[in-house]
Amino acid sequence: KVAIKGIERELICPACKELFTHPLILPCQHNVCHKCVKEILFAFEDSFADGGSESSNQSSPRIRISASSMDRIDRINRSGIKRNSLTPRSTLFPCPSCQRDIDLGERGINGLFRNFTLETIVERYRQAARAAIAIMCDFCKPPPQESTKSCMDCSASYCNECFKIHHPWGTVKAQHEYVGPTTNFRPKILMCPEHEMERVNMYCEICRRPVCHLCKLGGGHANHRVTTMSTAYKTLKEKLSKDIEYLISKESQVKAHITQLDLLLKETECNSERARQEASQSFEKLYHVLEEKKCAALRAIETSKNIRLEKLQTQVEEYQGLLENNGLVGYAQEVLKETDPSCFVQTAKQLHVRIQKATESLKSFRPAAETTFEDFVVDTAKQEDILGDLSFHSNGLEIPEINEERSRMYNKALISWECPGKTDSADIYVLEYHKLNKEEESVTWQKTEVCGKSKVLSDLDDDSSYAFRVRGYKGSICSPWSREVIMRTPPAPVFSFLFDDKCGYNNEHLQLNPRRTSVESRAGFPLLLGSERLQVGCYTTLDYIIGDTGIAKGKHFWAFNVEAYSYLVKVGVVPSNKIQKLFHNTHDVTSPRYEQDSGHDSGSEDAFFDSSQPCTLVTLGMKRFFIPATPAAPKDPASRILPLPSCLGICLDCDTGRVGFYDAGRMKCLYECEVDCSGLMYPAFALMGGAAVHLEEAVTAKYREYHDDI
Question: Where does the record place the B30.2/SPRY domain (predicted)?
C-alpha cells in the first residue's frame, strides 16, 4: 500500500495550487482542474481581445497568467491569428505545467477526457486527510444527517432513511450501484467526447488517448494506428508495473541521490552566503571610497567658503570705513580738525594716500572673491555609467558581435548580432543605442531587452548617426559589451513604390516578378535585331520603367540593388510632364558620339546631350558608378568612375529642387545635382542588355521571419 500523504505533490493542480477538482487530461498528458481550464481560457481569450493588457488578467482570483504566458499571448497576437464571435472559443491553451501552447482542437474543453483515476486517488487522499469529517446526506431536511452510502448512478449521498425513500424496493432505482459515502462519482462507462453516444473501445497509439469506432472510421483518427482497449490496458499496465518495480528496486540508489542532493543544498547555502559576503565587501569598499571622496570634496568646499567669506568680510569692513563718521573717513575728519600745520602735514600725507586708494577702489568696484562654486561641481556621469553596468561577469558567457552585413538602416533599423561560438548561451540580450551628437557632452544610452538575436527599431531620426552595442544576460550574469557599431539613417523618410507594369512597360524586353519589386532585362532575340543599327553608329534604345507612385512635395528616399552582372542601367527621376517624351525620345540612344562619358568631344556635345534628356539619370554598369560629366565634375574621366555599391539610394528634395545619389550601405552621397520639380516626380529606371534591379524591401517587425521564409 502507498502512503496517501506521501503523494500530495502529485495531486496538486499546477494552476490553482490546490487539490485537483474534476481534472482534465490535456493533449500534452498533463492534468488541470476543469474549472481552472475554463478560467485560463477565458483570461487567455480576454488577453487576445485586449492585446495582452495586464488589466485583462484580473478576471479570476484563482488564476493568474504568468509572464511567460503573456509573452506567448503577444507572440500569437503578432502571428496574425484572428478570432471573431463566429469562431469557437480559443483552442490554444497555455499549459501551466510544460509552459507550451496546446491546441485543444475545435471542440476545446469538450474534447478533453476527465481523469477519473486521478479523481479517485484525490478522493482517497481527502478522506485520509479528513477522516473525522463526515459526508452529509444530500436529501435530508435541515439539519442534514450523516450519509451512510452514495449512489453511483444518482451521483448523490444518502442516509439510510433517504436512501429507502428514493430507492424503493421493486423499482429500477433499487438496482442502482451504491458504495460507501464519497464525493467522487465516476461514470460506469467512459463515453467519447467527440461522439457523446459512443463508448470508447479503442486506444490511439499516435495521439495516446481512448477513441471510439466512429473516430477510427471517419474522424480525426482515421489514419492513426489504434489497438483494442483491453490490449492497451494490459500493455500499459505491464509497462507501468515494470517501471514501478524498477524504481522500487533502485531505492538505495534513489536514497543515495537524495543524500547527495541534501549535501548540494547545504553546499549551495554555504556558497551563496560566501558570495553574498564577498559582494557585500566589494560594495563596502565602494562605499568607503565614495565616503572618502565625499569628505574630501566637502572639506575643499568648506575651506574655499571660509577663505572667500573672510575676503569679502574684510572688503565689507573697508567700505564701511568710507562712511561718514566711521572708519577711515571719520579718522580723516578728525585729522582735518588739526590746526598745527607741522603736525597736520606729518599725518595728512600718509592719510591722503589711503584716501586716494579708497577713491580708486570705489570707482572700479570688484568683489574680493567669487560667489559661484562652479569649480567644485562633481561630474559623475562616467562613474554613473560604470556603476550602471556593474554586474556579475562570467568568462563562460560569450561576447555577442553585431553583424553589420545583416543589419540594415532603411524605413526602420534592423540590428542583428551573433555569438562567435555560434551558440546561444545567453537567455536574453540588451541592445543599447544613442544618437551621435558632438554638442552633447554626456551620452545617454537608450536600452531595450531582446529575446532573440535581432531587433527592429522605429524611433530613430532621419539623417543621423547612431552607435549600437549589445550584451548577453544569463540570469544575473552578463557578458561584456560588444564592440560599438556606428550606422547612419537615410537622409529622408523612405518612399515606398512598386514598378509600374502599365505606363510604357515593354514586356518583350523587360520581365517583372509577381510582386513588382524586381525588373530584369534579358539580352534576347529583340536585342539581336536591334544590333543591326550598329552599321549606322547607334547601338539600341534603352528600355524604361518607372515607379507606380509620384512625389509632389517634400523630401524622400528610396533604395535598390543592381545585379553585378548588369551591363547598363540608368537610374534617376522623371517629371510627369515628360514621361511620354521619355518613352518616345528619338535621341535616347547610346553611341560613341553622344555618350556623355565617352570623352570623344568637348562640352558642346555634353550640353546637347543633357538638354535633350527628359529626365535626370546617372549611369551604372559593369560594377561601376559613373559620375556625369558636368562643369563641376573632375575633368579626368577615371576620377568620375567609382565602384558600384551593393545598395544604391536616391534622395529627392522637391522643395529645394535637388536629387542625390547615395551609397545606401553607408548613407554617403556620391553625386548631387539640380532637378526640375515642376510636376509630379516619378522614380525612373532604364536597362539595356543583361541587367536587373531589385527594390529594397522595407524593414518590418517580422522582417527576420519573412526573410527566412523567402
Answer: 477-704
Nearest to 212 by CA among 224, 223, 199: 199
pLDDT digits (tens, 9 = 90+) for 422-462: 565 788 899 999 999 877 667 788 999 998 889 999 889 99
Among 18, 282, 17, CA closest to 126: 18
> What 8-state DSSP symbol labels residue 698?
P
DSSP string, 408-465: EESSSEEEEEE-TTS----SEEEEEEEE--TT-SS---EEEEESSSEEEE--PPTT-E
CB within 8 Å of 601: residues ≥ 6 apart? 593
Is residue 229 within 8 A of residue 205, CB to CB? The reply is no
Residue 537 in grid coordinates = 553608329
Residue 117 located in a structural domain? yes
- At residue 418, what is the residue type? E
CB 477 within 8 A of CB 453: no
Same domain, 577 and 525: yes
* Sheet of strand 23-25, all strands in order from the earlier edge strand to the far edge: 31-33, 23-25, 113-114
Are 621 and 661 within one domain? yes
Domain carrying residue 683: 510-586+613-629+637-695
| Listed residue (74, 37, 69, 43) closest to 57, CA to CA | 43
Exposed / middle / buried, residue 240 (Cβ in 10 Å: 0-12, 13-18, 19+): exposed
Same domain for 329 and 407, yes or no, is no
- CA–chain centroid gap for 660, Å, is 33
How does DSSP classify residue 140?
Answer: P
DSSP secondary structure letters along 30-48: -EEEHHHHHHHHHHHHHHH
Residue 176 within any structural domain of the chain: no
pLDDT (tens digit per residue) in 146-185: 888 888 888 888 888 888 888 888 788 888 877 777 777 7
Q: From CA 48, how far away is CA 40, in angstroms rounded?
A: 12
